[in-house]
Amino acid sequence: MAQLIDGKAVSAAVKAEVAEETAKLRDEKGLKVGLAVVIVGNDPASRVYVNNKKKACEAVGFQSYEYALDETTTQEQLLDLVNVLNRDDRVNGILVQLPLPKHIDEKAVINAISPDKDVDAFHPINVGKIMIGEYSFLPCTPAGVMRLIESTGTDITGKQCVVIGRSNIVGKPQAMLLLQKNGTVTICHSKTKNLKEICLGADILVVAIGRANFVTGDMIKEGAVVIDVGMNRLENGKLCGDVEFESAEKKASFITPVPGGVGPMTIAMLMKNTLTAAKQQAGIE
Ligand code: GUN
After folding, report:
1. Active site residue 174
2. Beta-strand pair 63-69/34-40
3. Name one GO molecular function term (predicted).
């Protein structure tokens, strides 16, 4: 039976580290840390995420600046706001919550954020740095996954790592971070043939495909570390991951629950990136 990886506890430890360093920066250098969070429209899931990000800012001692814009906001208006925030010295990090309404080009907005304030690490400059292993900002969810794997005491070097999902936000950067830690990495996706066979070879399996209960116990190698990035809402209103937990926990050595696994880590790593941004902008790091 697998041991549970407690994302709430690991994320609390990351936030405590950030809070301690933030207090030290304030006391010793008079430096404040600020995050601007921009939300456009009324998507309920985005609202929950943004509220959680604001709460996390308070908990670690950051200033948070929320910009809640109407659904009808034009791309030009949003780009104008991003440019104002790029120049605002109180703002160390800028986060534009995705998805944006359909009439706005997400790529144009991401490209407009100053790479120095791009705490999501979505800007092509930061994505490129992740490719070459020279990052200022780690992508939040993949970095959170790495921290969870680390918490199990697993050494990634030489291990077979399988990532299911190839999104720009999770799958692709996840593969790069595992590779950076000397994993042997395979990326699978919805069109992969012989998926079960590939998964059965995985010592470390990260699932981010966005389909409820997609990976079942019979696809998991005995003793594997299984990280479930999925967050799906079933018809009965219950949350579930991309991994069928009941069958998977019988095979894995460690497994993340949903909720309470990867979810809390994303916000903790966002806090860490915002602190890094503040330090870099102050010439400290
Ligand atoms: N929407 C879902 N996840 C994320 C994230 O990590 N960052 C932003 N900006 N939007 C999101």
Report:
1. no
2. parallel
3. methylenetetrahydrofolate dehydrogenase (NADP+) activity
Owner of token pair 């069928």: 244
Q: What class is the 28-114 domain? A: alpha beta
To the question of whether residue 167 is assigned a binding role by annotation, the answer is yes
List the CATH code of the domain at 140-263. Answer: 3.40.50.720
Is 165 annotated in some ligand binding site? Answer: yes
pTM of the predicted model over 0.85 = yes
Query: Is 126 a pocket residue for ligand 1 (Cβ < 6 Å)?
Result: no
Catalytic, 97? Answer yes
Tell me the pLDDT tens digit for each residue of 39-94: 999 999 999 999 999 999 999 999 999 999 999 999 999 999 999 999 999 999 99
Where in the sequence of the chain do the CATH 3.40.50.720 domains occur?
140-263
Of 116, 118, 120, 228, catalytic: 120
Q: Assess whether the C-beta atom of 255 lies below 6 angstroms from ligand 1.
A: no
Closest ligand 1 atom to Cα of 140: 6
